[in-house]
Amino acid sequence: MSRLDSKKFISLYLLLFAFWLLLSGLLDWFHLGFGIISTFIVTSFCYDMVFVSKEGKDNPTKIIRLFKYLPWILYQIVLANIDVAKRVLNPSMPIEPQFIKIDSYLKSDLSKTSFANSITLTPGTITVDIDENNTFLVHAIATAPADDLLGGTMERKVAHVFLEDK
Amino acid sequence: MLTTITNIISTIFIITGLFFVLVGTIGLLRFPDFYTRMHATGKCDTLGEGLMLVGLMVYQGFDLISVKMLFLVIFIFVANPVATHAIARRAYKVGLEAWRLEK
Question: How far is residue A59 CA from its own chain's centroid?
């Protein structure tokens, strides 16, 4: 049991309560009372799991770069979804499943998670495992998406967002 | 006039979303093994559901309900790849063989 960190507790409490207000939209005492009680219970369970940052202070440039990254990844998702749709609907079903390995140079947990999620979201590739040597095991549905991924564009972009450029 | 335009836009979004969900389901039926099926369902669903919710948001206009749907879209886009990865990882650890193209 860790020591109660009141600053963390209060900030998470306020955040969750604001979220409750947004979702409920009812401002009478009955619903507010439920909100106050349930938010307190949830906060007391998980205040020490949220806002855990091992990598020091959050840098505002990361957030700006993240918003630049989002449109690109959305565009990639749409492109790759069309690609999978073509493979599914093609009568000869041109798939060639294979496992590939990527040695990544990303360091922080958050950047690795984002990279793994980006790989899984762009169809044609699924992150199956990450081992302690930072090797991503990826299942690819065909050679073309595997080659795209091995080209390293996405990894460079993720590294750029989290200030981990090589 | 304005309602007609928003209706058309939202219909386009919903039909495109439906198309991707349909493709995901056909892929689930056609693909040969577990991993390739994960490709079809885990991701076509993400985009399909996202597009359908965006269509409903356009139809609803800007209010509390559409903000809630926006939260749903964000949640789906974060949670779906995590779930896909978790299932695929478990299958790999258990030692499920992947289907390969015979040459």
Answer: 17
